[in-house]
Design goal:
The complex is a heterodimer of chains A (142) and B (79). Chain A is an alpha+beta fold and 142 residues long. Helices cover 32% and strands 37% of the residues of chain A. The chains are: A alpha+beta (142), B alpha+beta (79).
Chain lengths: 142, 79
């Protein structure tokens, strides 16, 4: 179980490969479910040029850890990985990576869905968009 | 231990209140709602405001004590 919040851009598929190579569950997993969330160049009918992602240092890590532990209790999974960007980003940048490993597919699918939904509703992150003429805080998560 | 309560604001609430954090005397705020009133000079709290004490979600009537960290923020929009 690993969580990470980072201001630097990251390449999710490289990170996934690196994590899997050093993991202690080699040979025991038959399923890997992966979700990557990326920044769009549009939102609510407007062009978005850039985005600022703020978080609550300490509480955000605490809640990512908490939902990871909940997923591990609810499903028979081998491991999970969450990486989330903060700070300034641009369209096409990966924002979040969630990966779950399990022996069979159902647990990996269900647990990865749970991690993403809980992250979006409970982890303290906030997006501020830069539009051509102004900036605005995103007020609801779609 | 400090006899103050630390109050933090994030995102649009930080901008609305005009500060990221402040300290208030513990004696002047027994609940999270009172901490908001003290720290903001009785600003009206937006309806959808989320609250945390020591980094766990709470309600406005939760009791607080010296040394606690209270935070106010808008609905979260990560992922």
């Amino acid at each position: 179980m690993h969580i990470e919040i980072q201001p630097q851009p990251f390449e999710p598929y490289t990170r996934l490969q690196q994590y899997q190579q050093q993991a202690d569950f080699a040979g025991r997993y038959g399923a890997t479910a992966v979700f990557v969330g990326s920044m769009r160049e549009f939102n609510q009918g407007d062009d978005v040029e850039a985005m600022w992602l703020e978080h609550y240092p300490g509480m955000t890590e605490k809640y990512l850890q908490k939902i990871s532990e909940e997923a591990a209790q609810k499903w028979d999974i081998l491991d999970s990985l969450i990486i989330h960007r903060v700070g300034e980003m641009h369209p096409n940048d990966p924002i979040v990576l969630v990966a779950v490993w399990s022996a069979h597919r159902a647990a990996a699918f269900d647990a990865s869905r749970y991690l993403m939904e809980e992250l979006k509703s409970r982890a303290p992150f906030w997006k501020k968009e830069t539009l051509p003429e102004k900036t605005r805080w995103v007020d609801k998560n779609t | 231990m400090s006899d103050a309560i630390t109050v933090k604001f994030f995102a649009s609430l930080r901008e609305a209140v005009g500060k990221a954090d402040t300290e208030i005397p513990a004696l002047e705020a027994a609940t999270v709602l009172q901490a908001w009133q003290q720290a903001t000079g009785n600003m009206v709290m937006p309806e959808n405001t989320l609250m945390a004490v020591n980094m766990d979600y709470v309600d406005a009537d939760t009791h607080i004590k010296a040394g606690d960290e209270v935070a106010f923020f808008p609905p979260v929009t990560g992922g």
